[in-house]
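Pasting as-is:
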Amino acid sequence: MNPVDISEEDVLKKYQVLAREAGEGGYYLNADTEFAKKLVWGLLINEARYGYPACPCRLSRGIKSEDLDIICPCNYRDPDLDQYGACYCALYVSEAAQSKTQATSPVPERRPIRSERNSRKTIHTTNMGRLSYPVWRCRVCGYLCAREEAPLVCPVCKAKKDRFERFM
């Protein structure tokens, strides 16, 4: 799909898919539908350009292996929702932000600059057996993930964050 060929219908279809997936995962899309649809349009543009939906609010290298952390939903979504009530681009918001019991605030960029990402890559390959992130286990279904914090919601059984334990 050429970026100029993205129609309102394409945006609406993708928005509906993201809204359904977000709901199934215990997440919420921004209540400002028009704003959210502009972000979805940006995702579709990036998908047409690069072949994957890179976050529309970050600079993509156009090399999937270097952009895995910013393919939507990006690796930074959950920590951003935990701390700020919204992700960096504000497509996703927390339950508290959705219900307006938490105000959202500007989200600083968490993505390391390119040289830091490259040095992290080196750490991964030279320290085999040492993980860069803690491993979290869902006590309900056993799902494992390696990240700074446990996910807000288990993608398998939909258990809340408090049902995760540090595994290693």
